[in-house]
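ugh finaly. both done.
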Amino acid sequence: MGIFDAFQKAFSNEEYGPPPDAVKATARHILVPTEEEAKTVMSRFSSGESSFAALAGEYSTCPSKSRGGSLGSFGPGTMVKEFDEVIFSPQTQIGELVGPVKTQFGYHLIVVDKRSGGSDWY
């Protein structure tokens, strides 16, 4: 083994495998202007009266309402701080309705559908 082989081995990452995928989440939300309206929507969802997608179409002021509230996949720092804190919190369970979460845009009801990357920190 020559000196260049030693350098190549020293700077390779073979022992540790490939780097983890970037942290991402897939989520849906319903954005309403008041906390009272958010509680009404939560009550209707919890009672099983309507699906999340139907309630998003009926109540949400966000353009995502046409997709059932789906925001697609995104990484940390893409959304406003209060929203990100809920989405990427280890305490937020996948598939669980969370909210209302107040931001500068209004009150959000959030469902995290999936998280990926970042090992098992969440």
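ok and the 2nd:
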Amino acid sequence: MKVNVVSRKLVKPWKETPPQLRCYKISLMDEINPSMHVIRILYYSSSSDHHVCTLEDSLTQILPLFYPLAGRYDRENHQVDCNDEGAEYSTALVDCQLHQLIAQTKLRPEHLNHLLPLEIGASDEPTDPLLALQINRFQCGGLAIGACASHRIFDSASLGIFLAAWANAAMGKPVISPNFDSPSYFPPDNLRPHQFQESRTLDESIVSRRYIFDKYAISRLRGMLETTWKSNGIEVPPSRVVTVSAVLSQALLRADRAKHGKSRSSLIGQVINVRERTIPPLSKHSCGTWVVETFLEFTAEESQGMDKNFAGMALKMRDVIVQGVRDCARILSDKEFGRWLMVDMFLEGAKKAESPDYKAIFITDFSKFGEYEVDFGFGKPVWISMAAVPLEDHFILLNTKNNDGIEAWVYLHESDMPFFEQDEDLRMLTSISA
């Protein structure tokens, strides 16, 4: 697949940012984000010249609402200069049919990075755009929108909010009004970013794979948990995310044991979206970084037991998430606790994960952002994807088009992936695109 970029320019807001909004101090949570972009690629089976033209116009219309995205980051002062310099907007031609790309059984995630406007690590420099978009047109008339937004001011839920707002503007639907008030709750404290990687370019030592859990695999996994759930008085069926997260975590623990010849202590981080879970509730359209990372820790002996006990692993992962959701209620009323939950706990876990005595696993759920409903006038997406990202030992979970499965994007070191791919339980439950 060859992608030829034919145009690249800056799109500015249709009106100037008012003086009182020119300086946007990032939040405490934003400070510790790694220097990278959050990404998404949305694929549409058909497009028209008219609707493609509305993309740029509607972007101009909504940028005043998302005013930090048109500015530039001032790293020295931990703030965004909302100077209306603009978002980067590119158009490109792809030399294949969209269905050929989607139907590939041996899809290479790194090839999808060509559909993105920037290197994922290209952020935080004074000239780096905080938002970049690339409109990719396929030979068949299909289209893919590649989006990059700086993790310095956005988490993945924020990107979902922006995409929905942009689509609404393109369709003439009611405007989604975001808010950027996270710094008022948790002001910056001059913290350094936690760097999972240092390079602005793709780290080739991190290998990407996509595993698809269809509705039949999900149903089978839920059936395996039914007795445990009932015996623990849990009436709600196991979620797709918990079942898939447990399977993936077990497979990686087994792979780690096979590689090292013994089990190590393990640390499993699961991300919770804080929006609408605080008291009082944060708006679902709150932009910035509003997440909690919960951690589940096992000794080496416990790790070896858990990599064989699917029901036990799933139950413990569920319990940690349930407690994390309960804890979210206190974030705004008890700021000291809120800082510990959203910042200090993450930094402690991340530091522990750097120890050679631990196998760390990080799981992020993007399946609930509703991006299969994002319609710019081309109809709804036929696929939503990630690409290759510079995050080691990460699982990113996306929804499937029919809302009944999970696409798991797996990012491991090249020395770990062969052991992971050989896991028999994983091979029986999934189809793999590598």
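summary for the 2nd one i guess: DSSP finds 13 helices and 16 strands in the chain.
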